[in-house]
Predict the structure of tRNA-uridine aminocarboxypropyltransferase.
Amino acid sequence: METEAAVGGSAEAALAGSGAEAAEPLVPRETAREGEGAVESATAALPSPDPENSGNCADGLWELPVEHALRRPQCSRCSRPQKVCLCPFLPVHPLNISTNLYIIQHPAEENKVLRTVPLLAACLPQDKVKVKIGRRFSEERDPELSAICRNPGTLILYPGAEAINLEELISNSPNHLSTIIIIDGTWSQAKDIFYKNSLFRLPRQVQLKTSVSSQYVIRTQPTNRCLSTLECAAVALAILEKNDHIQETLLRPLQALCSFQLQHGAQIRLSKEHLLKNGLYPKPMPKNKRKLRKMELLMNSVKI
Ligand SMILES: [Zn+2]
């Protein structure tokens, strides 16, 4: 939620469930253009095929692969436009991990400009990361995913009522935990995916209790402790692999991405929690009493 949802399970989870803040993108929407303009359709400027002019020198232009030639070249490793490739910030070799990571990605995340999952995947061995895109998954259509969900060594990062703190689980669990599933989407998308797919309620639910503040400052997070999918994966893998170096390495490209965006005019998006606490929240307070109460609790940092 953005997995961001998976952190804490207190204020964030309550917010996600309230409906009041559910509209806040968990892995919020991008606010910055990437310092590069959008790709424009080259074909629009071309004359359309006209059979009557087939003898003229201008015709045949539409047959040229113009659009392909103008498409912004993309780096094959980090999936970023080549001009803003983040590969110098990725580890030279993929990190050596034993945990398998499954990212369940809401289809809307796939097309966002500022995506963190390709950066995450670029840091890890290919056979350790699987990204499955969709809203609905079933035993029949996804036998592999079903087997994963039924495996007692599989965890899902989701701050539901049954979620336990991942760190505590690791220290108390004699079993080998082989796989972790993370849902990539906004809060409401993640909640929808979790509740509408019974498969995802089979694995043990875990959450991250961390004091880490999101470094993904260019998208608004509901609270400072809501983490992007990449940050969640970084923290979770560091715990599962008992190796803090993993977290540092995975966060490096995100820091570079944020710093690049800020240099190119993106604004730091402070979390709603920060804005409320400092009297900077730009919107009128809600009239709905339940929502207002939640806002007050958030301002006072009371667990809700
Ligand atoms: Zn690259």
In short: The longest strand covers residues 100-105.
